[in-house]
Specification:
- The structure is a single chain.
- It contains 17 helices and six strands.
- By secondary structure, it is mainly α.
- Strands 1-2-3 form a three-stranded antiparallel β-sheet, with no helix packed on it.
- Helix 13 packs parallel to helix 16.
- It is globular and about 75 Å long.
- Bound molecules: acetyl coenzyme *A (ACO).
- The site of acetyl coenzyme *A (ACO) has 18 residues, from helix 16.
Length: 430
Amino acid sequence: MADRKVDLILPGDEGMELPLQSPTLGNDVINIQNLSGKGYFTYDPGFVSTASCESTITYIDGAEGVLLYRGYPIEQLAEHSDFAEVSYLLMNGELPNVQQKQEFQDKLNNHTLVHEQMRNFFNGFRRDAHPMAIMCGVVGALSSFYHDSLDVNDPTCRETAAFRLIAKMPTIAAMCYKYSIGLPFMYPQNSMGYAENFLNMMYATPTETTTPNPVLANAMDKIFILHADHEQNASTSTVRLAGSTGANPFACISAGIAALWGPAHGGANEAALNMLMEIGDVSRVGQFIKRAKDKNDPFRLMGFGHRVYKNYDPRAKVMRETCHQVLEEVGLKDDPIFKLALELERIALEDDYFVEKKLYPNVDYYSGITLSAIGIPSAMFTVIFALARTVGWVSHWLEMMSSPELRIGRPRQLYTGSPCRDYIPMKKRT
Ligand code: ACO
């Protein structure tokens, strides 16, 4: 219904008609593109009411707790699919047939190694550097190695860069970990699945051949699927904004990694586990709930609340179930931290403050416990999130770069600084 319009009454003007655009799902969108021509901007700190682009990749219904990748519910994908297939879906829009899946896997396998010289990069970092700091640097540095995929105007180059990024992220992530503990880097094994290969690079050593536990590899694969995309979140919007300038894809993904690092975004899984450790015992839950509700205390329940979900995050449901399976497998089904998490969730969901503000557990609430049970140190949690989200970032970047509407992203502002004034020489200043 392209001809629907809304009337906007402007001061001292006869007003203007703004086109009303209908999405396939979700809120109607008022197109304000021509508003600046009338001498007005819109003001929306935090982009709460602003659609920054048109996209066909992911849909979230925050009120109902729905997440769809290319139309498919996340619960179905987590149950029936695997990460390589979900990556194909996000990048191409449809599920692959057998041949398409094999070709996609072969292309990924072709790019799992990183340039040998990149190993030297790691030596420049302190051993105790946060792995996200290393990852930001190393992923940005990919642009200094792969000159043949930097032409952002060439669709073939764009596709090659996309495969390179998705295929190399597990290798780089595992290298960040191995470097931190002083063990040799492991090469990828293309005979293994994506998650299995990652776990192998994390835990195998050149002196011992090990096969990753299939239950843990399966859980890791689910974690990758759940984190693969989440429409125009802060890190994806960062990738799009950086990409809109024509910056190369490796630099753009590095910018996305930086944005993901914050505790309000991807850093929340690490923060949620740290918080549960700090609470330590069910008897202290009340005290921490009280702190979370206190306006004068900056403490928040980490892993709770979401800008878009005002209902249970559908990923958190799958994550809680996966968490159960992993704890059972590693003999930690009576894990006190998991029990504490369940109890904290129960109490918070019955508390008026959390009910009124519609604050529910998000995906990060249970992912930290799960990753920890798999044996992943907490500093690596956000690295794993970045690894999984790379396919989402790349898919959005590909979508944006092939859009005829591509323009540099350049928000405006509500300026509240000083009006124009004359320079005052130093000797005349009081
Ligand atoms: N604990 C206690 N109170 C909370 C929490 C929380 N976790 N989250 C929100 N609130 C309160 C706020 O204090 C605010 O109260 P007020 O209306 O009285 O001022 C109200 O709920 C709304 O919160 P906002 O911060 O305005 O919501 P916003 O959409 O800007 O923030 C965010 C969402 C950043 C996720 C927030 O809920 C939060 O900080 N949660 C904890 C961190 C976290 O888990 N982040 C992971 C997000 S998921 C992801 O990135 C994968």
